[in-house]
Amino acid sequence: MPGRIEAPVVKNKKVLFKMYIDGNPKESDFEISTESTIKLDVPEGSNGVLLKNLYLSCDAYLCFLMQGAKSSMAETFDGFKLGDPIGGMGVSEVVDSKHPKF
Q1: CA 1, CA 75: separation in Å to the nearest integer?
Q2: What's residue 76's pLDDT?
Q3: Is the dihedral of CA 35, 41, 45, 51 positive or negative?
Q4: What is the 3-state secondary structure (H, E, C) of 56-94?
């Protein structure tokens, strides 16, 4: 589209799960990756929302998921897989939105 300003492209920082834990997690159990990039806009015609994560909770449930096969409930809940980004609850800022409620 002529005259449209391109959105900036930035490094997409991810917290990756590096090692199964035994007890409380340590910083060495995680790895920060900035290998991928993300365009800071939401495509026109979508209802998408682009968020910037500010804080990530590391609560008891996440610790449970980080124990892998050692967990007593491993058959019931899927834990985190090594090398995957950590998912969970947190606090985010809306950077761009095409959704009417955000």
Answers
A1: 52
A2: 61
A3: positive
A4: ECCCHHHHHHCCHHHCCCCCCCCCCCCCCECCCCEEEEE
H/E segment holding residue 27: none
CATH fold of the domain at 9-38+49-95: Quinone Oxidoreductase; Chain A, domain 1 (3.90.180)
Q: DSSP code of 1?
A: -
Q: What share of the chain is helix, strand, coil (3-state, %, to 5)?
A: 10, 35, 55
CA–CA separation, 11 and 51 (whole Å): 14
Instruction: Report residue 52 as tokens.
Output: 């910037």
Instruction: For 58-81, write each residue's pLDDT tens digit.
Output: 788 888 888 876 655 555 667 888
